[in-house]
Write a structure and sequence with these properties.
By secondary structure, this protein is an alpha+beta fold. It has helices spanning 2-12, 15-19, 32-36, 40-51, 94-110, 134-143, and strands spanning 28-29, 61-66, 71-76, 79-84, 116-121, 128-133.
Amino acid sequence: MKQLVCLLLPMFFSVSVMAGSIDYDKLVFLDAEALAEAGIKEAYEELLPELKRYVQNSVKIEERLDADQPRYSVVAAGIEYVVYAPGLIDEEGQSWGRATWAFFDIVNRQLTGSQYRFYAISGGNDLGGMFLTAAEVEEFKNSLGKKSDWPYLPTQEHPWYGQEH
């Protein structure tokens, strides 16, 4: 699958980036829908081998899922991230946005003090992530015409959750 995506990337991103120093083989495929459907812990565990290249001690994630309510949250380093719960608005992909923000916040809190951050690439079902320095992010921005293609650090702000538009 990864090889297929790397073949298709030139169709969506400018050729100059493909020829530059950005290594799309390092793109981690996530899918915001899968994260929101009780997939944060699984995605985090798959990311751990790569994350451990940047941090000495990784945090553990506890998932809390109550199908009767329905409610889904994760706890990492003492912080609870609620993805969906009774009373939370869940229109226009808001649970996907909250799950994306939670996942990236958990990873990036661990990178404090490092020159790297885990940046989101795209969103929704096409969500991916990449460990990048600020200089590499600038290289992306200078090479890509559309702001929506730029790497970004997800936020809690609906509707874009930090993605340029």
